[in-house]
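Give me structure tokens for this 189-residue protein.
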Amino acid sequence: AVLSVVAHHVAPTVVRAGFVGVDIFFAISGYLITRIVYADATAGRFSFTDFYWRRGRRIVPALLVVLTATWCLGAALLTGPEFLSLGKHVAAAGVFGSNIQLWREVGYFDSEAGVKPLLHLWSLGVEEQFYLAWPALLLLVSRRPRSAVVWVLLLAALSLAVSAWSAVAAASAGFFLLPARLWELLAGG
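Here you go.
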């Protein structure tokens, strides 16, 4: 999945569908987290505190290194308005909201992707937003496994419909925001 995305960025005219790697990554992530939460829930040992603590321990240290290094380099290399923009991106990434910040900026006066060093963090925003709601929802429906499958399928179908609609009516929202990406995570779930 990662190699296809990297290859697409290196040679987009040669590897045209490399972005599918993001979809695959979301499905794998949805599978792994669903498996962890469901196994802990059915064994009676799921804890929101433990779940979010483990996620934080895994993600936050590396994220802080990236954000700090990017901010320091930005302070040395960027102009005032560029540095101000970087500050907004660092703040958004710090609360797993890069995807929302990037979506809000899309438009005629938006700067090009090449000058957004934290652009890649949009997918982390989608993933972490999923993890805010998914464990609680999964716990609610896991008490009745048959209905859980139905609820997951219905939610995935609704998200897929939102994704198809947004491809035509709101492409940037469909790309950056969780409602149109949820089906990919739920496919793994």
